Task: structure prediction
Amino acid sequence: MSSLSSLSAFHHWLLEVSHDDTTPPNVLILGDALSYPQLAADIAHHLNQFHDSNSGKWLALPTVLIEAIAADPSQRRLVGVDAACEKCPPTSACGIRKVIAAVAARGNCVLDSVYAAAATIGMTQAFRVSLSNPQGSWHVRLDPSLFPASCLAPIIGDIYLEWLECHCDDHPHQK
Result:
């Protein structure tokens, strides 16, 4: 996907996904997915097909798109990140974490960035999936070598939907 079409999809997603302070956002975090560059998009596609309550509004935000948003002041303002830290450039780890946190707060996104887990600490609706890292706090750790690559997105998407259903049953106001 070219950066122009990625930014275009990002702009459409911004218009479609309304930020509602009463409903926690739904976010899926991928960790260690560098060997699977299409996985975030495949998961978003799967969720758009099967997550009925969000009616096709999931967007994959791979690292390259997150960095493009962080690098452009106009794009940062769209998500409410006006300025980077005084000591850090907008595309530094700090700047990228700010963009990720702002995007995640809107919800309905699959984030594929090494900074995503740190940027979403404390988000109760952030579901974390690691494809290799045994360290850290992950809801699911998968060894992708044990699955055909075409099965990873449906497996991760379906596990997320089951988790969401169970998680929402514990917190009925979040459904």
